Structure formats: C-alpha cells, structure tokens
Amino acid sequence: MRKKWSFSQVHVSHGPNCWSLLTATAREQSTNSGSQSHGRQAFRKFLPLFDHVLVERCAAETVTKGGIMLPGKSQGKVLQATVVAVGWGSKGRGGEIQPVSVQVEDKVLPEYGGTKVVLEDKDYFLFRDGDILGKFID
C-alpha cells in the first residue's frame, strides 16, 4: 500500500520507488513554473526536509587581486556558499508552517560545520535554516 503526502506542491509517494517519484514530480514542477524562485525543487534526487538547507561552498580564490597565484596551503577556508535546495519549513507553535528564510541561488554565510552530503561526486553541506548566519545582497 502506498501513501501520498503533499507538501508545498511536492508530492512524495512512500514505497520502493520513492526517490524516483519525488524527482519526477519536482522536475515536472520546475518545468511548469519556469523558475526556481520558490526553491522547493528536489536537487538531483535529494530534497531537504523541514527547515534544512542544502548549500554548495564556493571555490577558494587561487589568484589574488594583484594577480599572484596562491598555492593550495595558502588558500583560506571558504565561508560563502550558494543555496542549492531548501526544505518547506518548520512547524510553529500554533501549527502553522514557517517557511525557510533563504531561496535557491541565494549567496549565504553558513555557520561552521554542517553535514557533508556527496551527490554525484560533488560535496554539498546540509544546514538548518537557523544555522545560516546571513545572506549576501548583490
């Protein structure tokens, strides 16, 4: 027997093919809406739950502004990250859903740590919405 839930227009089927159904549904929504502004799409078979945010850390600078190439040991740790996928939010005390404060493609400053997630041989990090310290405004 399969159960269906609906969260922010994303349908998840509980069963042996759960991930493929989730990805197909999310892909269909992104082509219908034409944009990722609401940021609730699955990212390569991964959809963060509740108030979690999936980010990709930006690459470290290898050349200074003056044109000097930096060796690997001299490159600092990159703190800035790009939001790749977000969950639908968390439940408030009254039962209402509080949406996540960031959207897909936002440049953010996450707290140290996070949970490392490897998807298709790339490293991503999973944070709670409250662990995002701020976002950069262009």
Automatic annotation (TrEMBL):
GO CC field: mitochondrial matrix
Question: Which GO molecular function, any one, fits this protein according to its record?
Answer: protein-folding chaperone binding
What is the top-level taxon of the source organism? Answer: Eukaryota
Q: Which keywords does UniProt give here?
A: Chaperone
Role according to the record: Co-chaperonin implicated in mitochondrial protein import and macromolecular assembly. Together with Hsp60, facilitates the correct folding of imported proteins. May also prevent misfolding and promote the refolding and proper assembly of unfolded polypeptides generated under stress conditions in the mitochondrial matrix. The functional units of these chaperonins consist of heptameric rings of the large subunit Hsp60, which function as a back-to-back double ring.
Give the SUPFAM superfamilies listed for this entry: GroES-like
According to UniProt, the name of this protein is 10 kDa heat shock protein, mitochondrial
Similarity comment: Belongs to the GroES chaperonin family.
Q: Signal peptide: which range, if any?
A: none
On assembly, the entry states: Homoheptamer arranged in a ring structure. 2 heptameric Hsp10 rings interact with a Hsp60 tetradecamer in the structure of a back-to-back double heptameric ring to form the symmetrical football complex.
